Inverse folding.
């Protein structure tokens, strides 16, 4: 899932939970850190538990956020 | 949490006694709040990273600007120390008023408008204190001090 583009501005793809009842703090921190390190962040919001589960299933990961 | 306020209160009485030979003074009340601020800041400063994560669960400014969560404990300690001393009030009062107001609005929104059940980050990141009235009190106390200290220093004299 890592996007290491050859152009000058590095880009990153981030998947994080953004739900009405839960805005993931680690997702916010990831986004902030990436931006501060000069990455162009392609920000994907997982807005429901189903979407999050599906994402984790698809990519074989246990937790979010994922970059 | 109760211990923090109790010890801060008794320390304030002690300082009041030492300085004025009477237990209850207005300055003692100011010491109580400013010492409480310092204690609460120390709790947060023990693990700034974990505090800032927990803080993101409800603080409105930190959500927009993540680094604020790391500045907050230092700001609280800074304002608290200056208020214990009664020094540089022109600086400590705006800092306390600012972080107190942002905090009070955030806590009020999270607890009373959104009715969310959260843990309070006020005594650091690994706490079990529910976010609620006490958290609001911490922020309201800072607001009161941010308004009161300059009034006393510059208007009453």
């Amino acid at each position: 899932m890592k996007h290491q583009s050859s152009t000058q501005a590095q880009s990153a793809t981030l998947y994080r939970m953004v739900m009405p009842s839960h805005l993931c703090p680690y997702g916010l921190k990831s986004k902030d850190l990436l931006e501060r390190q000069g990455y162009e962040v392609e920000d994907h919001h997982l807005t429901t538990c189903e979407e999050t589960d599906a994402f984790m299933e698809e990519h074989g990961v246990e937790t979010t956020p994922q970059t | 949490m109760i211990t923090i306020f109790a010890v801060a209160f008794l320390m304030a009485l002690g300082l009041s006694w030492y300085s004025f030979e009477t237990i209850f003074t207005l300055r003692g009340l100011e010491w109580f709040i400013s010492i409480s601020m310092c204690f609460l800041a120390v709790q947060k400063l023990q693990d700034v990273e974990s505090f800032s994560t927990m803080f993101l669960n409800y603080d409105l400014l930190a959500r927009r600007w993540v680094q604020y969560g790391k500045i907050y404990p230092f700001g609280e300690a800074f304002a608290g120390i200056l208020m214990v001393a009664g020094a540089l009030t022109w600086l400590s009062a705006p800092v306390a008023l600012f972080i107190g107001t942002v905090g009070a609005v955030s806590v009020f929104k999270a607890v009373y408008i959104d009715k969310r059940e959260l843990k309070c980050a006020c005594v650091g990141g690994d706490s079990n204190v529910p976010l609620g009235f006490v958290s609001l009190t911490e922020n309201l106390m800072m607001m009161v001090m941010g308004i009161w200290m300059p009034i006393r220093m510059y208007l009453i004299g």
Helices of chain B lie at 2-20, 26-45, 48-55, 60-64, 68-85, 89-113, 133-156. Chain B has one domain: 40-156. The radius of gyration of chain B is 15 Å.
